[in-house]
Amino acid sequence: MVGMESKEDDFLHAVRDGASGYILREASAVEVLTAIRAVSVGEAFCPPWFSVALFRCAAQQLAIQQNLRARNRSELSRREHQLVELICWGLTNKEIGSRLHLSEHTVKKHALAVFDHVRMATQIRN
User: Regarding predicted confidence, which is higher, 70 or 80?
Assistant: First the structure.
């Protein structure tokens, strides 16, 4: 996928939607060829600064799982996992509501309940 700007949200949305490679419009010919070669053999490619976003998202999901195990609490429901995943990918409450067919208010309420459940302080995106 070719991105127009170096926006982290655009990159995370592309990865969530199945992209294996992401380069910016201003990428050099060498970068484009490197990306094509990597993706063609099953590898992933992105500018190095976007790797941080992937690690942050993975770390958030691992922290939630560890908190659940450490407190010996019941697992999150499938729907709660969906909500956490969409928050992790950087979607706004409005976007999450649209995907899950919920109001923005309901998304905020459920998100707060999930994070309270795992005792994890977070900032809920508007």
Answer: 80
Whole-model pTM above 0.70?
A: no
**What DSSP line would sit under the chain, residue for residue?**
-EESS--HHHHHHHHHTT-SB-EETT--HHHHHHHHHHHHTT--B--HHHHHHHHHHHHHHHHHHHHHHHTTPPPPPHHHHHHHHHHHTT--HHHHHHHHT--HHHHHHHHHHHHHHTT---PPP-
Q: Is residue 6 within 8 Å of 47, Cβ to Cβ?
A: yes
What pLDDT is attached to residue 75? 62
User: Any idea which residue has 């208010």 for tokens?
Assistant: 105
Q: What is the pLDDT of residues 9-42, one digit of tens each?
A: 888 888 888 888 888 888 899 999 999 999 999 9
In the chain, what is the straight-line distance between the N-terminal and C-terminal CA atoms, in Å?
27
Q: 121 phi and psi, to 5 degrees?
A: -75, 135
- Please state the domain extents for the chain: 2-46, 50-117
**Out of 1.10.10, 2.100.10, 1.25.40, 2.60.40, which CATH number does the structure's domain 50-117 have?**
1.10.10
